[in-house]
Description:
Keywords: Signal. This protein is an alpha/beta fold. Helix content is 32%, strand content 19%.
Amino acid sequence: MKKLLIALLVTFAASFNVHAEDALAVTPQETYDMVQKQGDQILFVDVRDPVEIMFIGFTDAIDKNIPFKLVDRSDFLPDKGRFAMITNPEFAAGVEKALEEKGLDKDALIITMCRSGSSRGKPSAEYLLERGFTNVKYIDHGFQGSGAKEGEKKGMRIVNGWQNAGLPWSMTLNTEKIYRP
């Protein structure tokens, strides 16, 4: 009976498949509302390369731009038609410094945002969780959102994301917040 009970508990626990490193998604609107209500208690980080921000847009709602991945202009990937991206070796340290500047610690809520939410937003949040930050989320669909699946604007990023939620953004960069190595 004891073995059966243990086997059931192990099976039950495994069925949840929850890991500490699984970052949770928040919507752009939820993030904006949190920034407005408790901005001094959270750290909102844009994890895009600054060059990408320059061409796509920026929101001054962020606390800091700390790129998770940096474009490696010496490594072009012809099969993908783009440059390789390398993990910023200073990312976690930059986040920790930004927390300290706000008087926060590694247990404070950190929200990351990339262009689409999936390629750097969620991975950057999980990266931080793996390094001892305890409360990290990412913006689902990121800054620019997803591409339309059909219609005359098929492929254009006009679905969801920060820009398409009608939240504040512009093409003007705040030089106080943009990453400069």
